[in-house]
Amino acid sequence: MPNVSEKLKNFTDSVIRRMTRIANAYGAVNLSQGFPDFAPPVELREALAEAALKGPHQYAVTWGAANFREALAQKQSRFMGLTIDPETQIVVTCGSTEAMMAAMLTVCNPGDKVIVFSPFYENYAADAILSGAEPIYVALRPPKFEFERDELEAAFKKNPKALIICNPSNPTGKVFTLGELTVIAELAEKYDTFVITDEVYEHIVYEPYKHIYFASLPGMAARTISCSSLSKTYSITGWRLGYSIAPPAITEGLRKVHDFLTVGAAAPLQEAAVTALHLPDGYYGNLRDLYTEKRDFFLKGLQKLNLKYTVPQGAYYVLVDISEFSSTNDLDFCEWMAQEVGVAAVPGSSFFREDINYLVRLHFAKKTETLQKALRQLELLREKAKNYR
Ligand SMILES: Cc1ncc(COP(=O)(O)O)c(C=O)c1O
Q: Does the Cβ of 172 fall within 6 Å of ligand 1?
């Protein structure tokens, strides 16, 4: 038999998605892979039922149905403070996941370098390998997850083609400040690089923090590929609807890549999701309030258990310090925890380039009763951990 691609040796399957399978196998409360266990807004479910009856059921235009792009352009122009042309600047993709991959394949030649902040959402390393690019990692150091300007500039001096930024950040919950984004913008300009953003948590940002779209910074729209999706904003991770927003010349490239990757996102789901994109602005305030409540409830529970954790400014993840139980193999620890304690987490090492094994990621995009159950299970952690190893 011939060998499969050498590229596959350089990354594993997703540890996040693997933890969901492990959670299912042990019947653990799954706080690993970030998706809600509550229903999306009823208007969306009704719109989906209507689309099921009335269609469309055949391929949409490869880069997105016209009514979806129109509604998306209106909504994102409003939030991003930019004028986005649905005809020339949008590609509707299968999640932000595809948008990010398409962005990397569009801008990178084999051997190109790409700056990635560490810790990072694990897809970026695989995206880089699959597009033939080499990541240059720049540390966001715990506990504040700030970068050093000099270290970032040293990375830019290595002639990267692009910088990837996840804002708000998974897994740290960091929301980049205007000052930080301005430093990145100045360097992107100085060293003439693209910036690829992953902004899937754009509407999950806690007071007093504010999300600043990188493309909205002076001069940055011209070099930015903004990727995001409807997954987290409307609690529809299974609908697989995402998009890129970029200048027309880059979008032309993205459309070519996207066409051959997937042809297009599901037509009936695009049709139904137009309803989501037309929801009034109050929806986004309510979403923030809902997640603020969940965050506060979950953190209070962790505090009662005397666990050390990060307080997210955005997104819905908490990094919990497990160093009192284990600091060598967090993957083993997470598997043990799912089996013995009944709560599934993601090992922090799957996000860090640095050798960090004392953090695990839990998420709180769950019903209150699910979070209560997880906290009850976690009460057993310290006692059970006495027998760990
Ligand atoms: C930072 C980040 N990007 C992308 C995704 C996946 O998004 P999508 O469902 O739009 O593909 C996730 C999901 O957890 C994420 O956390």
A: no
